[in-house]
Amino acid sequence: VKNAEVMVFLSMMMFAGVFWGYIEGFLFWYLDDLGASKLQMGWTVTVGMVTSLPFLVFSGPITEKVGHVTVIIFGMMAYFVRLLGYSFIQSPEMVYPFEALEGFTMALMMTSAVTYVAKISTQTTIASVMGLMGSLFFGVGKGSGCLFGGICMSYL
């Protein structure tokens, strides 16, 4: 059962990386198409980081209260809301509420994911599972998000 749990977790982290890669690769281009200024684009990063700070500070108590799996699922749902929300915005100013969800998608979900690795691993496998999670999220996932996003954007 633990191996299935690890595989599902790693798959979720890869898909989270795909979502993150797509957002990181194409949000600014999309905002540019909507007529955003460079300042407005910069503010998206600021909003995302400022809203992430409380989740970084309180990620331990939040994860203890609701559980690792719940936090990770909530983070994936927040990615869904972000991506869906971006598709409906009509002006650059409408992006900020969706960028505020970065606290859930990156800060809270990723800190919970890192501590979840310790929970689902043994002392001999923790480094390997952590490395796999990182490579699937930051490498395969993010790269795939940029690649598939680019393919999709070329047809739109």
Number of strands: 0
Shape: globular
From the N-terminal CA to the C-terminal CA, the straight-line distance is 43 Å
Which residues sit in consecutive blocks of at least 5 with pLDDT less than 50? none
Query: Helical stretch count?
Result: 7
Mean pLDDT level: 93
Beta strand %: under 5%
- Proportion of helical residues: over 70%
N-to-C order of helices and strands: HHHHHHH
Reported for the largest beta sheet, the result is:
none
Q: Strand pairing plus helix content: what structural class?
A: mainly alpha
Rg of Cα set: 16 Å
Descriptive overview:
This protein is an all-alpha fold. It has seven helices and no strands. The protein has helices at residues 2-33, 38-57, 59-66, 68-88, 96-99, 102-120, 126-155. α1 runs parallel beside α4, α1 runs antiparallel to α6 and α2 crosses α6 (102-120). The termini are far apart. 33% of the residues are buried. The mean pLDDT is 93.
